[in-house]
Amino acid sequence: MTRSTTRSPQDSPRAVQDPAPPLSHGLKQRHLSMIALGGVIGAGLFVGSGVGIATAGPAIVLLFAATGALVMLIMRMLGEMSAARPSTGSFSVHSEAELGSWAGTTSGWMYWLMLCAGVAAEATAAGTIMHAWVPFLPAYGWVAVFMVFFCASNLTAVKNFGEFEFWFSTIKVTVIVAFLVLGVLGILGVFGNAPGADNLTAHGGFFPTGAAGLAAGLLTTISGFAGLETVTIAAAESDEPRRNVVRAVRTAVWRIAVFYIGSMAVVVTLVPWNDPKVATAGPYVTVLDRLGIPAAGTIMQVVVLVALLSAMNANIYGSSRMAYSLVTRGQGPRFLSRVTNGVPAAAVVASCLFGFAAVIAGIIWPTTVFAWLLNIAGCSVLVVWFIVCLTQLKMRRRLERETPELLLVRMWGFPYLTWVALAAIVGVFAVMATSSDGRHQLVGTAVVVAALIVADRLRHRRDRRGLSTPQP
């Protein structure tokens, strides 16, 4: 792999990119808004959040509020950088430009790993649901069907992907809004006796599991927001990248904050946090049963399946674009830079194959390889956010000095809130270090980060040797 000196006008002027064929620009503003929602609203909200409630109790609302505030700061930083320099590689390109290639390599491949692991987890859960409905095909057979279908859809024009994600996400958003409306009516006593504050205080108090429960629930809430960054990747393939990323970032954050925080507030107000069904059947099903909604379980199974497929689709898209950006900058196998009809076909196929391989690993080595992969993926978003903060601190000052007209979006309270976000991320790492599972995640993630940095250094050393070798 030789490193080109051709610079892309989309990316930061300090970033170096290969002259790969350009991607298409078929996404609209409505696509971007729903892509942002689709990548982050998956089964984690509809089912997985029940584990967080069972762990932290009613205090899960505060955890989601705190995590949501951190995510809002991160997305504001990403919006500032992406509006100034739209790029398929988003934060990976910006971090390479400002901090060095080690940062671009680390943040990019860690994010790719996180999204591919998400694809595997979502495909596995979707296959399990479909096998229960149509048992003649085993769960892994359904996984293969989903993988082939979404691989094919992502190999077509990006506009088609945007349409799929738009309608998938529309279904999810409609269900969440309906749930919030029904929940508020239930709290007001329309469906029986109003619960008041009983469920918030009567079962061990608002903090029933103490600091340990909050620490464990914190990791659940953070992983629930992972994937929102995909909107800044997709913006580069829209018709008006700068304007569209500004709108998408501004609207997606508050929508998701309302959906997550509002949903959790409704759940812990209407049902006891220690109801076993919250963790097993899921908080949405538990609440709908409490309100007497018929066929609640069946309805939510359909919604969960749609949510899984939507998040799977969005993660395949995001991972393929990140891989494409990395390899065009010389940070991966060159064959992955192949573009067909404006789509990075090789990167799409590679991301799908990795996701399917992870599913097989989950079948063969569920408690070793697959568990390790999910642990690393869960911590990857924190590494990415940390690098985003460092990048924004440096890029903002350079933009103010050199091209202030590109600052269409400005980070609030710069630089103080950026430092607050950095401190919060370090605090999460510290909290993780207090538990056995958290330490395992940190150690595994540190090993992967170190390997990526070493690989980047070795690549630079090889490139320098190639440049110093006399040409015949």
Question: What does this molecule look like?
Answer:
The protein is mainly α. The longest helix is centred in the C-terminal third of the chain and has 34 residues. Helix content is 73%, strand content 0%. The radius of gyration is 22 Å and the shape is globular. The chain has 18 helices and no strands. The N terminus is likely disordered.
Distance between the termini: 19 Å
Estimated share of beta-strand residues: under 5%
Largest sheet: none
- What is the approximate shape? globular
> What radius of gyration results from the CA coordinates?
22 Å
Report the order of strands and helices.
Answer: HHHHHHHHHHHHHHHHHH
Please state the average pLDDT score. Answer: 83
How many distinct helices? 18
Strand count: 0
Helix content: over 70%
Give the class from helix and strand content and strand pairing: mainly alpha
Summarize the structure.
The chain is mostly helical and 472 residues long. The chain has helices spanning 29-40, 43-56, 60-84, 91-99, 101-133, 139-155, 158-187, 198-201, 210-225, 230-234, 241-270, 276-280, 283-290, 296-328, 345-364, 369-402, 416-432, 436-468. The chain contains 18 helices and no strands.
Q: Which properties best describe this structure?
A:
472 residues, mainly alpha, disordered N terminus
Q: Which SSEs are present, and which pair or pack?
A:
Layout: H1 29-40, H2 43-56, H3 60-84, H4 91-99, H5 101-133, H6 139-155, H7 158-187, H8 198-201, H9 210-225, H10 230-234, H11 241-270, H12 276-280, H13 283-290, H14 296-328, H15 345-364, H16 369-402, H17 416-432, H18 436-468
Helix pairs in contact: 1-7, 1-11, 1-14, 2-9, 3-9, 3-11, 3-16, 3-17, 4-5, 4-16, 5-6, 5-14, 5-15, 5-16, 5-18, 6-14, 6-15, 7-11, 7-14, 11-13, 14-15, 15-16, 16-17, 16-18
